[in-house]
Amino acid sequence: GLGGLAVALAAQETVKNIFGGITLIVDQPVRVGDFCRFGATMGTVEDISLWSTRVRTLEQTVVSIPNAQFAGMQLENLTRRDRIPLRTTFGLDYHTAPDRLRAALSELRAMLTAHPKVHHDTARVRVVGFDGPSLQVEVFANIQTSSFNEFLAVREEIFIQIVDVVRTVAGQTATP
Questions:
Q1: Separation of alpha carbons 67 and 86, rounded Å
Q2: Closest among 118, 161, 172, 166 to 142, alpha carbons compared
Q3: How far is Cα 75 from Cα 109, in angstroms, rounded to an integer?
Q4: Pick from 48, 69, 90, 118: CA 20 to 30 A from residue 31's CA?
Q5: pLDDT in tens, 146-171
């Protein structure tokens, strides 16, 4: 009796992990090769077994998580997204003439909406506040790609265009 109870209690975690593994395999919130966020950790799923899931983190370590715990976490599958948000804020001098400021904002909005990789409905450029010696301008848009490397290239291209617009229209350099 007492031995059977001890075995049953010891097997409880194993059974939870098996059911967690079955849930992960059937529901497939993540698959092998997917880049995901779970808790405060991000990484690429390397293996899903009945007992545990192994994830290679950004630090290139491998974390093995019992399936009962992994299946119960909030899993964010970053591989399956169809857009990646671009958000940046930069400063313009308080002394920028209002007409030049409006022209710069208008030109930046036009640049964003003309870009073939920008989801036009999400593109916005707004003055969002004051910080020290500058007006803070926020640029936001969703970039239509699921590839992080492609996103980085598009973001770089947009940042360079922002510098060009600010220098040409506002007559100054943007500050982070």
A1: 33
A2: 118
A3: 34
A4: 118
A5: 888 899 999 999 999 999 999 888 66
- Tokens matching residue 144: 């239509």
87 forms beta bridges with 140
What confidence tens digit (pLDDT) does each residue in 55-112 have? Answer: 999 999 999 988 778 777 888 888 888 899 999 999 988 888 889 999 999 999 999 9
**Best CA proximity match to 63, nearest among 35, 34, 42:** 42
Query: Which of 58-62, 132-136, 172-176 has the highest average model confidence (pLDDT)?
Result: 58-62
CA neighbor of 53 nearest in space, from 40, 36, 154 = 36
Alpha carbon distance 165, 39 (integer Å) = 39
Please tell me the chain's helix, strand, coil percentages from 3-state DSSP, rounded to the nearest 5. Answer: 40, 35, 25
Q: Please give the structure tokens belonging to residue 104.
A: 């710069």
Pairing of strands 134-143, 84-93: antiparallel
Helix axes 98-114, 148-165, angle to 10 degrees: 150
Beta bridge partners of 35: 44
Please tell me the distance from the alpha carbon of residue 82 to that of residue 91, in angstroms, as a whole number.
30
